[in-house]
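The following block was generated as part of the benchmark described in Methods. Ligand: pyridoxal-5'-phosphate.
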Amino acid sequence: MKLARRMDYLHTSVFTDLRHDKEEMEKNSQTKVLDFSLGSPDIPPASAVIETLSTQAQDAANYRYAVNPLPELVQTIQEWYQTRYGVRLDADEICLLQGSQEALVNLPLLYCNPGDGYLIPDPYYPAYLDAPSMAEADILFMPLKEENDYLIDLDAITEQERKKAKIMLVNYPNNPTGACAPDWFVEKLIRFAKANDILVVYDSAYSELVFNGQKPKSFLSYAGAKEVGVELNSFSKSYGMAGARLGILAGCPEVIEAYRKLKSNMDYGVFLPVQYAGITALKTGSNVVEQTRQTYEARRRLIASEFGKAGWDLHMPDGTMFVWARIPDQWENSFDFARDLLHETGILVTPGTAFGPQGKKYVRLALVVSSYTIRAAAKRLMDSRFFLQLNQ
Ligand SMILES: Cc1ncc(COP(=O)(O)O)c(C=O)c1O
């Protein structure tokens, strides 16, 4: 059977290749690979969340279709947005998701006909590319450059791109660069979207993971945001619930209505015990979120100081669980660098090219390992003199 053309647009995950490299390395050299590649959170959910999930899973009534979200969860989300971000959300401005990935994949189907423009940052989270490609939209890259603090340069988007674009994907705190967006940028973004009639999809999957005393913010807290866009939020990173799929799409009611229509043809809602667990997470989890945030902040400080001693100077991110590191000039591209680093030290990182052309000279390190592992990796860098010999 010949597959449909849209399947040609899908890439195999870079992490499948990296897992293979890791297994080979461990088999051939008997070295345990220290893995900084995949961004899967290692911090478990609060025990109250696990308890709610398991208690609710004992109740036979919770195995019915969950076409409509639990009113108590919707109300809890409204209260959480109000107290956390000062944002008032009506019920028709909220749609429950099986993780935010779901909407990243489906939103292009709502608005893009073949040939419509779809603006995405470069570097990007991989779903930003594959999903609109499947809808046969034309991908328009918005480079995130170090010299612009990895903010999108809105002025660099051409007249032709502005006319063509239906959707703009924006992600701060940003995966993979760790950059956060200042107020002036979001205000300018809203003006830009309004003037050019472009729907903003603001991916806030890392909304709570911000450092240096910054306050978590919602895109929807800015004047005019709900008129031009929607925000994605997720329980995966903040509450350690990545496998218990739960996310939020909130904002412009017309978009929410259209999305619900699409969704009603695709699934029957989020498993009810997961919804109850979400209520517990939002109602009781603020300490847990703070501890999680502090853990990533401490790891990022530790990796910068320990790797720095071994000759690898890392730029400290303002948010997320990632470090976006420039590779030394001796390497032409990040794939070769990552391969050499793995072979010489047993440290696995993700080549930046996996996130787009702008990643050619960068690699991403995910801080989803213990401080013990960070120290062990620094020791390997030191012992191998991998960076120290470059600097001689
Ligand atoms: C930027 C970004 N957006 C969205 C997601 C998807 O998160 P989830 O579907 O678990 O909510 C991820 C996951 O790593 C991500 O990094």
